[in-house]
Design a protein that fits this description.
heterodimer, A: 111 residues, mainly beta, six-stranded mixed sheet, 52% strand, globular, B: 116 residues, seven-stranded mixed sheet, four-stranded antiparallel sheet, 48% strand
Chain lengths: 111, 116
């Protein structure tokens, strides 16, 4: 069974602080996605990474895919209250089209 | 609006009743997925269609669950004889088969089911 573990599960920080969320697995993924989900809504795709060691930036968010394509991280610089939400990573293995989701990191940024 | 849409957004039903949810994917997307999400958890894969063919079903999808995509466009998910444990958010996602590059899924807003 493929498992994607996210850490931390919960994070409450002050506006302006930096944070990193981790997504780890023993499986190798052909691609990995990060989503943000707000209460009562579906997940919204933030980024897709496919190459080991790849780094992508989306404004204040930096995403990195591990060299072995088994793990990923999301770093947020100078967090803002609008960053509050559930952050999910999801990985797909080669030859399948379904994504396995992590358990999520619930982030709260206090003003 | 060209995103994935789902109806209804909320459904409250009594135990033992049947319910049906609908998903309209992004128009050119040939792949469609159903997921279930319970409180505090990430989405769990239920089933996947490529065009009208249902190619994969999770073991989570008991005999009471059935999904269809008759014309390769919209899809329905039916739950028969609902149980309280079926209470969850049911999410639909779609993607476009790409010969190169990753398979990027886009989600709808979900249908929240409450079984009393």
């Amino acid at each position: 069974t493929q498992l994607l573990e996210q850490s931390p599960q919960f994070l409450s920080i002050q506006e302006g602080e930096n944070l990193t969320v981790y997504c780890n697995s023993s499986s190798v993924f052909s691609s990995l996605q990060w989503y943000r989900q707000e209460p009562g809504e579906g997940p919204v795709l933030l980024v897709t990474v496919v190459t080991g060691g790849e780094v992508k930036k989306l404004k204040r968010l930096t995403f990195q895919f591990g060299d072995a394509r088994k793990d990923s991280s999301l770093h947020i610089t100078a967090a803002q209250p609008g960053d509050t939400g559930l952050y999910l990573c999801a990985g797909a293995t080669s030859g399948t089209y379904k994504y396995i989701f992590g358990t999520g990191t619930r982030l709260k940024v206090l003003a | 609006d060209t995103g994935v849409s789902q109806n209804p957004r909320h459904k409250i039903t009594k135990r033992g009743q049947n319910v049906t949810f609908r998903c309209d994917p992004i128009s050119e997307h040939n792949r469609l997925y159903w997921y279930r999400q319970t409180l505090g958890q990430g989405p769990e894969f239920l089933t996947y269609f490529q065009n009208e063919a249902q190619l994969e079903k999770s073991r989570l999808l008991s005999d009471r669950f059935s999904a269809e995509r008759p014309k390769g466009s919209f899809s329905t998910l039916e739950i028969q004889r609902t149980e309280q444990g079926d209470s969850a958010m049911y999410l639909c996602a779609s993607s476009l088969e790409a010969w190169q590059g990753p398979n990027e899924q886009f989600f709808g807003p979900g249908t929240r089911l409450t079984v009393l």
